[in-house]
Amino acid sequence: MGTYDLNDIFRIEKVGTKLLFLKNGVKIDSCTTISNSYDLFVDAQIYTYGGQFHQVTTSFAVQDSIIVYPDKDARIASNSTLNFGTDTFFWAVKSTNRVPYNYRSLIQFNMPTLPANAKIVNADLCLYGVDGYSPAQMGHRCETNCISNASKVYLNTATWDESTVTYTSAPAYNTSIYGVLPASPSTSYDYTNYTVDINNLVNYWFAGTYTNYGVTMVLDNESYYYTQLQFRSSDNSVTAERPKVVIKYYVGTKYYVNDNSIAHDVFCKAVGNASNSGLSPYSPKTSISSILSTYVLGPRDTIFVDAGTYTEAITFTSADCGSSLGQLVVYGAGNNNTQINNTASNHNIYLNNADYVTIENIKLNNTQTGVYYNINNYGSQNMVLKNDSLYHSGTSSVAFSASMLMGIGSPVNSIISSCTIKGNSANGKHIVISGDCSNITITNNRIIDLYDNTIGIQLNYIYTSPVYYKPSNIRILNNLISVDSIGIHINGHASAIIDKVEILNNSLTLQSSGTNTYGILFNYSGSSSSNIDTLSGNTIIGGGYGIKASNFKYAKVYNNYLLNNKIGISLTTAQDNLFAYNSFYNSQTNFYGTSSDVPTNTTLSNNIFVSTGSSSYYNLNLVSGTFASCDYNCYYAPNGAGVAYYSSKQYSTLSSWQGTDHYSGTGNGDEHSISADPLYPDPVTDDLDIDLFSPCTQAGSAVSGITTDIYGRIRRSLPSIGANEPVLYLNIPVLKNSILTDEDTVIATLTGSGIDTTFIVPDSFIVYPTVPLEGYLSYEISFEGDTSLIDDSSIGFRVNSLGIIDSVYEKIGSSQYPLDPAYYTLFGMNRAIAVSAVLKALPVYTKLLDVLDGGYYVAVGKKLKFYYWEEYNVTNGKYLEYKIYDKNMNIVASVSDAGLQSPSNAPLQQIKKGQNKVTLNLIGISGITTGQYYIIEVANTKDELLYLRFKL
User: Fold this and answer.
1) Which part of the chain is CATH 2.60.120?
2) CA-to-CA distance for 421 and 375, rounded, in angstroms?
3) Which fold has domain 293-670?
4) Numbered ranges of CATH 2.60.40 in the chain
5) CA dist 611 → 149, 437, 568, 618, 843 (Å)
6) Which of 607, 569, 565, 571 has its CA nearest to residue 586?
7) Helix (H) or strand (E) holding 866
């Protein structure tokens, strides 16, 4: 078969009667085989230079097995009219006791239920010899006139009863369908165990070609005496050696679909043809529907759909779906390479009570208007949409629906992940979940629609008289949603309150600022204190309202950014809620309660409220009522807005607000709150991260159950007000010299959100940051050099909440020795740590470099921020072109200048001529992990490359 090198692939491919031998996809030999109904392939890849095959890929899955024991068995004797249904032996005999007689035996196994798509590889009947008896049994026997005791088990064609069957009433059997028992090795006292291949019989039973009435064991030659095979029966006392059938099968066939071209193909080696089998890359069919109509599909089956455009309406039903054994997968060649367009008046893909179906790496383009969707999930469980691109012109792109009165299941345990969903018309809804749907996760998707009156995600109740149905346990996390009107809509009813909704770490941007535009809109949510909705880690930008809710109870809303809305949060008929550690920056009111019950049993603490409105507006606007807790907030209004409007009275200042009772406990409320500018870095560009100079830093109080900030960083015991907790990082930008001497130095930068502390240290060093439990940040610098004087030394810095170095110590072994913070000397060794600490405020944006040096930038909160200068003319809609490499120089994220993303949630940044402030949010990108180093490579319009090393 020729010579094979590292990574070469050797394939054996069967197509019809041809057996092909290929090297790296090129045929090198072939032969003709006996034809059957199966096409298959086996790939083996060279993995080592030793030339051994170390990876094998096949067109079928690994085998499973199941063992079946007899439902009944019986011996029948030609010399008796008696029934022997309880005989402890299973015989085939020709003998004589003055009168010649024959024994035959019947046995039947109830076949198990296998998946509809199971392919039986082999089925073995296991029979055990009768050794171990005293006196000894004859066992297998072939003596005197015996020629051979070989036998067969024949397929029975009629039913029989174990307790009544006799020789004369025995069922007929088919002499053309059988399994073979060869002759025993010895002439007598032979107890060999037999494994009988009955694969053909079992396949007939499963296919329904013949009804399972079991088999009859008969000697091949019943003419000669002293001929016998003897085994244990199901009534034998040795239970471990009773008869059984071992069935080995697999589920997981690979099917192939291709268009009329092999351009850009990934899976197939030939164009599609309707007459092809679809079971081989060399014999693909032309559509998914043709695969479904030709075969019964089930768990672990995969349909590989190669590059091309396919126009078809695809329906999966309970006859073609997965199960708890595994998904049925439709896998494309890439969400820009494999495209499916639906036909007129049809959905693209209709899952009609079809469970465990995965659609992955495919572009779905719904060009129909009205109620036709890309994905219509009608009562189908465990659906997975992954890494797909969905475009739609109709009312919705993905729809889930179910109610028990529809007579179908519920679409539970489904996932939509890493998809791009875009709309092409007004009034569209991208993901709609209606009725009795639960445990659905929507994560790491990009949902974009700039047309009027569009909604990102909607949860709806259904009323099917006389019952209301509602979604529950819905998780919406790490999505980027940019729509016109409503980001997320939770639409319940008094009789269908929607519970246990988690909305976490999403970025929601509204393109319209009209009165009826909402980042998140709730109607009827929270039925009891054990059914809590959680809104955390979200950034909600633009629109009339950040969050608007009515009939809203038992929710936890914390660690969110709400900015450039008109009204941050508006509540009507709401109580028993928690609002903590949120950062607001809005043009009118930040917290609006339109009914008197809004403060009831509600916590409002550790929030930053910034209203840029005039004196006509207020940070808080409340009808009346008292909070369960209202304190440790920050109020700021640079353009004259008041602190609160409460019970029809104006409170323009914090002191006046502190003077009126709005707290149900002792005191008036807001005793520890502050009125100050929180020093947001750039709220115009949606950056509300406070830094160590903010008056909100470590000015808050602990809230039970909230231990981290919006970026997942641990909150200190004295936490900061607002969504983020400022931290310091140590950057090492330059190693000046590779030759270490007493005078050699490196420049290090202790960096926080918006500040740098620069100092000089000798030699090279390693940083060991520790997360403080109290109000001090602590960093140790471990020195490494060419002298024993500093081999075991380290310098520790403690930094207070204002970023000032509070104290310095030397650490040798486990002992610490204080140093003078004014001079930072090491035992008078003339090695300056910093003659004086230089504290200065520097921009949080860094610069790209032509050539990488030894330093790195810390991307606080997984936000990579840098300046990018574009000196050439750029067209509208041009995106920053970049690649991000991990430490092994594997590309983990990239975007082309046309906006093509890999993965689909790689952040986009449009650029213009001149200076650009770039912020790339790397949260949720697979392959980018906290604590690891990465390199970003940026290309300008002349393909000149710039670099930055960074760490998360």
Assistant:
1) 65-250
2) 12
3) Pectate Lyase C-like (2.160.20)
4) 846-951
5) 98, 39, 9, 7, 25
6) 565
7) strand 863-870
Using CA atoms, how far apart are residues 59 and 328, in angstroms rounded to an integer? 15
- With H, G, I as helix, E, B as strand and everything else as coil, classify residue 784: strand
Amino acid code (one letter) for 516:
N
With CA atoms as reference, report the closest residue to 22 among 211, 256, 262, 270. Answer: 270
> Which two structure tokens, joined as six digits, stand for 73?
């068995």
For the segment 240-285, what is each residue's pLDDT rounded down to a tens digit?
A: 999 999 999 877 888 999 999 999 999 998 999 999 999 889 899 9
CATH 2.60.120 corresponds to the domain 65-250: yes
Q: Quote the CA–CA distance of 252 and 232 in Å, as a whole number.
A: 36
What is the per-residue pLDDT across 560-604, written as a single tens digit (0 to 9) for each? 999 999 999 999 999 999 999 999 999 999 999 999 999 999 999
Bridge-based pairing state of the strands 567-575 and 589-593: parallel
Chain centre to alpha carbon of residue 347: 25
Structure-token match 């569209």, residue found: 428
Single pTM value for the model: 0.69
Amino acid in position 664: S
CA distance 902 to 907: 9
> What residue type is assigned to position 77 of the chain?
A
Q: Tell me whether strands 64-68 and 933-939 are parallel, antiparallel or unpaired.
A: unpaired
Q: Which two tokens stand for residue 759?
A: 């100092």
What residue ranges of the chain are covered by domains with CATH 2.160.20? 293-670
- Architecture of domain 846-951 in this structure: Sandwich (2.60)
Residues 6+ apart with CB under 8 A from 667: none
Query: Would you say 174 and 117 are in contact if contact means Cβ atoms under 8 Å apart?
Result: no
Asked if residue 91 lies in contact with residue 139, where contact means CB atoms within 8 angstroms, the answer is no
- pLDDT, one tens digit per residue, over 902-927 is 998 999 998 888 878 898 999 889 88
β-pairing, 533-536 vs 499-504, is: parallel
d(CA 58, CA 188): 46
Encoding tokens for residue 444? 């790491």
Task: Please tell me whether residue 201 adopts helix, strand or coil conformation.
Answer: helix
The Cβ of residue 770 has, within 10 Å, a number of other Cβ atoms equal to: 11
Asked if 603 and 629 count as a contact pair (C-beta separation under 8 A), the reply is yes
Residues 454, 426: contact at Cβ < 8 Å? yes
What mean pLDDT is reported for the chain? 83
What CA–CA distance (Å, rounded) separates 330 from 87?
Answer: 53
- Beta-bridge mates of residue 126: 195, 244
Beta-ladder partners of 359: 330, 385
